[in-house]
Specification:
The protein is mainly alpha-helical. 48% of the residues lie in helices and 5% in strands. The structure holds heme C. Heme C binds next to helix 4.
Length: 159
C-alpha cells in the first residue's frame, strides 16, 4: 500500500513539473531568446561576415562551391559539403571542437587547411594563408553561439 501511494505521488509531481516547464517555455524565455539572436546577428555582422566575405566565399559561395561547400548562408553552412555519394557536416552549432570548419581554419589537419596555402608566382614559394589568431577566436565564438547569420547572403569580396 505504501509503495503504490509513493508511486502516485511521483507521477503527480512529474506531471506538475512538466506543466510548469511548458508554462515557463511559453512565458519567459522568448524575449531572452530574441535578445540572444540580436546579439548573435550583431556579432556576425561585425566580426564574421567580413572574414567569410574576404577569405572564404570566393571559393565557397554562389559562383564556386569548392569541395561542394557553400558558406554564404546559414542554410548552406548547416547543409555541409556535398560529395558525390554523401554529404559531410562541417559545423556542429555550439561545439567548435567538433566542427570541421574550425579544424580547417586552425590548420590542424594537413588535409584540410582553409583558406588553402597558395603558390606565390612571384617567389615560387607556397604562402601560408592562415587567418589571424583573433579571426580564428571570433569564428570559434561564433560556432559556440550557434552560427547566427544576418539576413543577406555573404557576398565575396574580391582581393
Ligand atoms: C582558394 C579557394 C578556397 C578558399 C579561399 C577557401 N576554401 Fe575551403 N575548400 C577549398 C577546396 C578546393 C576544398 C576541397 C578540398 C579540400 O578539402 O581541401 C575546400 C574544402 C573546405 C572544407 C571541407 C569540406 C569537406 O569536404 O568536409 C571546409 C570546412 C572549408 N573548405 C572551409 C573553408 C573556410 C572556412 C574558408 C575561409 C576561411 C575557406 N574554406 C576558404 C577551397 C577554398
Amino acid at each position: 500500500m505504501g509503495r503504490s501511494t509513493t508511486g502516485k505521488r511521483v507521477l503527480i509531481l512529474g506531471a506538475a513539473g512538466a506543466l510548469a516547464l511548458a508554462a515557463g517555455n511559453l512565458a519567459s524565455p522568448a524575449p531572452a531568446r530574441a535578445a540572444a539572436d540580436e546579439k548573435g546577428v550583431a556579432f556576425f555582422e561585425a566580426k564574421i561576415r567580413p572574414i567569410l566575405a574576404t577569405n572564404c566565399v570566393g571559393c565557397h559561395g554562389e559562383e564556386k562551391q569548392k569541395g561542394g561547400l557553400r558558406l554564404d548562408t546559414r542554410e548552406h553552412l548547416i547543409a555541409g559539403a556535398k560529395g558525390d555519394d554523401k554529404t559531410e557536416k562541417v559545423v556542429e552549432p555550439g561545439s567548435p571542437e567538433k566542427s570541421k570548419i574550425i579544424e580547417a581554419v586552425e590548420y590542424k589537419n594537413e588535409d584540410t587547411q582553409m583558406p588553402p596555402p597558395k603558390k606565390n608566382k612571384a617567389t615560387g614559394k607556397t604562402d601560408n594563408m592562415k587567418l589571424t589568431d583573433a579571426q580564428i577566436a571570433d569564428l570559434k565564438e561564433w560556432v559556440k553561439m550557434g552560427v547566427p547569420y544576418g539576413t543577406a547572403p555573404v557576398a565575396a569580396v574580391k582581393k
